[in-house]
Amino acid sequence: MAYNIQTLNKISPLGLELFSDNYSISDNAENPDAILVRSAAMHDMTFGDKLLAIGRAGAGTNNIPVDKCAEQGIVVFNTPGANANAVKELAITALLLSSRKIPDAMIWANGLKGKGDEVGKLVEKGKSQFVGPEITGKTLGVIGLGAIGILVANAAEALGMKVIGYDPYLSTDNALKIDPTVKRVTDIKNLFASADYITVHVPFSPATKGTINAEALAQCKDGVRIINLARGELVDNAAIISALESGKASAYVTDFPNDEILGVKGVVALPHLGASTPEAEDNCAVMAAKEIIDYLENGNIKNSVNFPNVKIDATGTKVCILHKNVPSLIAKVTEVFGSEGLNIENMVNASKKDYSATLLDVSGDVTDSIVSKLCAVDAVIRVRVIK
Questions:
Q1: Are the C-beta atoms of 196 and 224 separated by less than 8 Å?
Q2: pLDDT tens track for 265-304
Q3: Which of 331, 337, 335, 332 is nearest to 363 (CA)?
Q4: Taking the mean position of all CA atoms in its chain, how far away is CA 361?
């Protein structure tokens, strides 16, 4: 079967070369089977009825209408962990930028151009204004112990920092990856009260909006340094500006500049560099391509943000059903196959909030008539037959 893939951004060739000759890839594909995207805004796009999947070459999916896609049976994938090392390295850089006033010092030093033989003396006279503390021995609070947060926590420990981690949703697998010297707290207030530096590594959602706000900053040490390389909305702009002006915060390093915070003393604004390394772009493209291929060819779902992970090895005809997470639906689906004299050899079902995915291994031919009957079942969104 041939598939059309549309690219909305420049995607690394390492990812694109994974697609076989059965795939046609272009940036202007009409009514594609799948879309590969990085940061292009998709909220105003109209999706064709053939669109089965969107692969986001990155972790955040704010640029994609995830809920709308779920309603239309479009599986949205992301690539968690693929850019984690790149963001970790920038987070360590941000720790140093926030401590040593490096950006201001560089600007000041470049301003000495043309001073001739006076430069050396001026440097010695002026350097004291850029004095800042070492990070060794200081306490770093890491909010969010996912793929990135774990790497940051472990790297900070290796640099001699004391690390406190907070993540109410920490998985068992991730817990095993954390350096045992990292202290985990169950109350974020304990992190705020103890940390000299705080770095935020959680997804943006209504629940996490303004994680660093006026109330949180009031609980922090005087002179706390805040790092936000995750999403701009996780830090309340007015609150951090007020904290910087009062001295409650010494620095704010963000990868999400906006007009409100640009030019504010103490703000180090970076132009969204977190995943801007060739290695991260390659890793994200490869992971996204593999996810798309596995779903289109096998119906397997891994790393979707709107449908659950499901996988099945079929010996007969594989049927992939996307549906609402409602009672009795599985019974209605199996009834359809039973009425047609088809046996279900194996089945996997999983749910993610309001939506579910069911993969079935069916013996016999699943005809268009059977597909129509399945689609007529209330709460079924999409049915695919994969032979």
A1: yes
A2: 999 999 999 989 999 999 999 999 999 999 999 999 999 9
A3: 337
A4: 32
Domains and CATH numbers, the chain: 1-82+278-306 (3.40.50.720), 84-269 (3.40.50.720), 307-387 (3.30.70.260)
What backbone torsions phi and psi does residue 125 show, to the nearest 5 degrees?
Answer: -75, -35
DSSP state of 65: -
- Cα gap 64→56, rounded to integer Å: 9
Whether 59 shows a pLDDT value over 90: the answer reads: no
What DSSP designation does 252 have? E
Q: Is 343 helix (H, G, I), strand (E, B) or coil?
A: strand
Mean pLDDT for the stretch of residues 135-142: 98
User: 270: which DSSP letter?
Assistant: -
**How high is the pLDDT of residue 143?**
98
Between CA 35 and CA 27 the distance in angstroms is 9
Positions marked active-site: 231, 260, 272
Q: Amino acid identity, residue 154?
A: N
At 48-57, the pLDDT tens digits run 999 999 999 9
Beta carbons within 8 Å of 317's beta carbon, 6+ residues apart: 361, 362, 363, 364, 365, 366, 385, 386, 387
Q: What share of the chain is helix, strand, coil (3-state, %, to 5)?
A: 35, 25, 40
Which candidate, 242, 284, 196, 221, places its Cα nearest to that of 9? 284
| pLDDT at 60 exceeding the cut of 90 | no
Structure tokens at 103: 């950006």
Question: Do β-strands 380-386 and 317-324 pair in parallel, antiparallel, or remain unpaired?
Answer: antiparallel
